[in-house]
Amino acid sequence: MPLPPVRIGLIGAGGIAGAHVAGYRRNPDTVTFSAVADPVRQNALKRAEGTDAALFDDYARMLSEADIDAVDICLPHHLHRDAILAAAAAGKHVLCEKPLCLDAGEAADVAAAVEASGITVMCAHNQLFLPAVAAAKELIDSGQLGRVYDVRTTDCFYSDFTAESMGWRANARTSGGGELIDTGYHPSYLLMYLAGGTPVDVTAMLSTHRLRFMEGEDSAQVLVRFDNGALGSISTSWAFQSTTNTERFSVVGELGSLHSDGTRLDYTIRGSEPVTVEFAPVHEFAAEIAHFAECVRSGIRPMHSWEEGIAVLGIILAAYESARTRSLARVLTAGELRSGLATTARSASEPARAGG
């Protein structure tokens, strides 16, 4: 007998929710869009258009009244922790947009709630579902590159944010910092995924080149050392577009190397001719939603669960601490973050503003 589709309730109907709803529509056999909660009714109506999704003005009512198996959290950053805790208390599985949460205390709360409830929590790290990333990871894991020495990831673009359009992102308390904990989260989780190790130490420099109406940085450069010896670097910005010859990611190993612009993969194994693989475009969010549905229906572990979400947060917090103190910062382990261990990393309410 085929497994029933996962009934999803959307929490937050803002901009990114549109991509998630598009993912639901591309997975009609495994996902049912059952409900949406947003205090702005027009937003909820827009996301639910053409569906039978029930509308709610707050997610607490949706959790208690809607016929759902899981929730998809697309709220501003500072609201993620509370929504995860509420979903866990209601026994609903969770797909959560990045970042999972904002500091060590919130990480401890999330870990305790998830472990007590036994729900599945998946981080919405959509770039992991790029075919080029999947092919690169397969090549690395096969051992053809040998031991990984160096990984680089980039996510830079020229943002048209204004003081008005930036909204909650302009405030470090609600965003968690600046560009690094927002768009910079993507190259951070991608770096960790390709490096295949646990982050240990971080050094970082932040700058605000252009978006001076925001409290946090609009650009960041981050170096990471992993426990397996791999070294990683992250370049991320809202102030500038990467040059045309800048790769999305690259990996150098003892036996070969690879690089990608996100649409193709070029790699060379020592002693062999270079290889180029082209990939057809995919809807990353549809693939992400499909994976989440498979995890919920089959009980398998997500590619990146809440544990990886906390580990990525560790990189970000260490980067902020490094920039604040102008020193090398140790990355708190997932266990330390989960235990609520006090950290000297800059809190979300203490913006670190760099020059530039």
Describe the structure.
- With 356 residues, this protein is of the alpha/beta class.
- It folds into 2 domains: 6-125 and 286-304, Rossmann fold, CATH 3.40.50.720; 127-281 and 311-338, 2-Layer Sandwich (Dihydrodipicolinate Reductase, domain 2).
- The protein has 12 helices and 15 strands.
- The chain has helices spanning 17-25, 41-48, 59-65, 80-89, 104-117, 131-141, 163-166, 172-175, 185-195, 284-298, 306-325, 334-338, and strands at 6-11, 31-37, 54-56, 70-73, 93-96, 121-123, 148-156, 199-207, 219-226, 231-237, 249-253, 256-260, 264-269, 275-278, 329-330.
- The protein has a 9-stranded mixed β-sheet with strand order 14-13-12-11-7-10-9-8-15, covered by helices on one side. Strands 3-2-1-4-5-6 form a 6-stranded parallel β-sheet, with helices on both faces.
- A hairpin with a 4-residue loop joins strand 9 and strand 10 (231-237).
- The N and C termini lie far apart (61 Å).
- Mean pLDDT is 94; it is low at 342-356.
